[in-house]
Amino acid sequence: MKIGVYVCECGVNIAATVDVEKVAEQAKSLPNVAVSRFYKYMCSDPGQELIKKDIEEKKLDRVIVASCSPRMHEPTFRAVLEEMGMNPYYFEMVNLREQCSWVHEDKVKATAKAVHMISGAVERATYLEPLEKKEVSVIPRALVVGGGIAGIQAALEIAEKIDLTISELVFEVVKKLHNELGIINDDVGCVITSSNDFNDGSI
After folding, report:
1. Parallel, antiparallel, or unpaired: how do β-strands 62-67 and 141-145 relate?
2. Residue 136 domain flag
3. What pLDDT sits at residue 26?
4. pTM metric for this prediction
5. Are residues 113 and 149 in the same domain?
6. Backbone angles phi, psi at 55, to 5 degrees
7. Are 176 and 147 in contact (CB under 8 A)?
8. Which residues are paired to 3 by β-bridges?
9. Were both Cys, which of 39, 89, 111, 117 would link to 19 (CB 3.0–4.6 Å)?
């Protein structure tokens, strides 16, 4: 197994608190790591090209990027692997920005933590298995559990688009309408039947 580790400076977002050069250097000694580099912006086109070049030349079969939140750039790096003919799920991401540099002021301790985080990612990467995307059919129905004010409002809005079932005892619905809106029992029917969604049988 050959793992590539890439540590991002993220401008000063990471580099101001984490010694990325030292982190990349220490990552080289981790098991199965074939290459470890640091770069100013790994998500940039030059940063992505750096990963592509190593995948081709060093025959990497796992890639780790230590940078920002996976929510922001995990799809970016998975696309890099896919473009190079690798399974995109052979990728592991370490969130150094939110979970390390932004929550620490001591550079020595933050750097040590970054090394530990990458060490964990390297270990996880050895167990990654290829996954394939697939499409499954979806039944256009919904279930709303609870007939409180929020449940009834959700039911009314959902029923405009798809078939809906609402799960709640009628007594509980009546009681909640009374307690939360001050609606007396005689008016409950007016509240419910005033909506065409209820009248047309979609709920």
Report:
1. unpaired
2. no
3. 96
4. 0.70
5. no
6. -60, -45
7. yes
8. 33, 62
9. 111
